[in-house]
Amino acid sequence: MSTVLSAGPFFEVLPGWLPTAQHLREASLPAGPLAAIMLDVARIRPAGKWHPVSPGAVPAGCVRVRRAVADSRALTRRQAGLLAGLELCRACTAQVRPRGRAGAYLDLARHIIAARAWTQALEQAAPSADWPACLRWTARTPFTDENVLGLIEALAGDPSWEPARQAGATAWQELRDRADTAQDQARVAAGPPGLRAHAAAACALVAAQQDTIMENEIIGAISSAKLQWRNVPVPSQAWGAASRAWAETICLDADPAAARTALADAVEQIYATAQVRDVALLPTAPAYSGDEFSSPAEWAHAEYQAVRAVTTRRWYQRLEAALAEVHDQADDAASQWRLLLIIGWPPAAEGDRELAYLAHYPELIRTPQVPTPASGSECPSRAIVLLHVPGFAARHAVAHQSPNLTATMGAQVAAGSTPSPGQISALLRYAAAIHGRHNLTEASAALGSFQVSGE
After folding, report:
1. Which helix (H) or strand (E) holds 427?
2. pLDDT, tens digit, for every residue of 115-135?
3. Which residue stretches of 60-191 are H helix?
4. How many whole angstroms separate alpha carbon 272 and alpha carbon 262?
5. Which of 79, 334, 363, 426 would be a feasible disulfide site paired with 415, CB 3.0-4.6 Å?
6. Contact indicator for 450, 423 with CB cutoff of 8 Å
7. Is residue 6 pLDDT above 70, yes or no?
């Protein structure tokens, strides 16, 4: 049971298990409605798992049982209660579902028991949560209500099932309240965005500048062999390594000098021994005359090193300027807050972790989750959200490159103020226009729902 209900942030009710009477009691659910249900089971080996089978002479169901019968092997048969806790074949167990209200109650119990394990794990993780952890726990929460409320409603209309229906509704609401309390505790533990979030924003803003893009490509191209028409160009690693090293170092003790050294060293670790393959990409005004070198290759190597030194100096100057601007906007720019529309919320994928701090800011509206091409255990279905964030955070989200989400910046709305329906509609129309080929359907649906709620 522990492997089936392993606690984790991405909630899922797995089909291959049945609860026991003890599980129902721990979840404050009555076991009586399911305790009377009996299963015909059989097993092939004395120490093997049990398989639910039909009561007839020729068992139907599991392929293992049918194969054993075809081979004239003797089966051990018995009857067992649905909640007896027998070790059942997981593939067979997924097919066990009583008819009518009993089946709905079994599904409801399994969902509540799994949600209880999820909530307990969240309560344990909340005191030490950071913003990426907060988003992972909210990315696939059990408390979307639609499925569970439908199962609770399916028990209505029969007085004999009313106690089970009320117990299920009460248990679900209590778990939801506990999860909300734990989420609030996790948000408090994560705290306001600090230097790490500001450094990530600075890196994204500088990375989006055309000069940075061109300089990064030139550093890589100088030492790359000329491509044949069939080959795909390999992206330069210089900027990625440099920006990561700078951000990690500046976040340790906020020492700009150490961060500059780390940035330059990261580039040199990749390209210090690289040979110059394309002299035409070196600067037209050389840094060295060439007289002091013994060969053209040695001169080209020195020129390439000078190019890297000039480039890394430009990069850390831009990063420091961007970080100073981010600090200013975060500390003293309440009037420069912006509306921010994100298609693909929450940013729970590994590559989007740097945007997790956006969950700290007010979330004005959220649509239901919609499937995305990257949906999976790391990147589940996403929603469209409208946030109210500082200007630096809006610019960071827009500059962030990700296949999982798109961000659109809207009008300035002072911190603490409420945007008008017209400002919201204008942002959504603009987002639908620029991202139309990517998420036009979802954005249009969101536009309609926002207009109804806002006007």
Report:
1. helix 421-434
2. 999 999 999 999 988 888 888
3. 63-70, 90-93, 100-125, 131-139, 146-154, 162-190
4. 14
5. 334
6. no
7. no
Which two three-digit tokens encode residue 382?
Answer: 């996403």
Whole-number Å distance between alpha carbons of 168 and 145: 12
d(CA 180, CA 162): 27
Question: What does residue 405 show for φ and ψ, rounded to 5 degrees?
Answer: -150, 160
Helix residue ranges per DSSP H, 162-295? 162-190, 195-207, 210-222, 238-253, 256-271
CA distance 132 to 123: 16
For residue 233 the two structure tokens come to 């160009």
Residue type, 328: D
First-to-last alpha carbon distance for the chain, in angstroms, is: 50
Write the CB contacts of 191 (distance below 8 Å, at least 6 apart in sequence). Answer: none
SS3 267: helix
Residue written as token pair 């831009």:
318
Angle CA(17)–CA(23)–CA(25) in degrees, nearest 5?
A: 150
Closest CA relative to residue 39, chosen from 4, 85, 90: 85
* DSSP codes joined into one string, 95-122: T---SHHHHHHHHHHHHHHHHHHHHHHH
CA distance 279 to 249: 33
Per-residue model confidence as pLDDT tens digits over 87-112: 777 777 777 778 889 888 988 998 99
- CB neighbours of 20 closer than 8 A, spacing ≥ 6? 1, 83, 84, 85
Tell me the torsion sign for CA atoms 154, 160, 166, 171: negative
Residue with the two structure tokens 């305790």: 35
Average pLDDT over residues 266-270: 94
Residue corresponding to tokens 């053209």: 296
What are 51's strand-pairing partners? 42
CA 76 and chain centroid, separation: 47
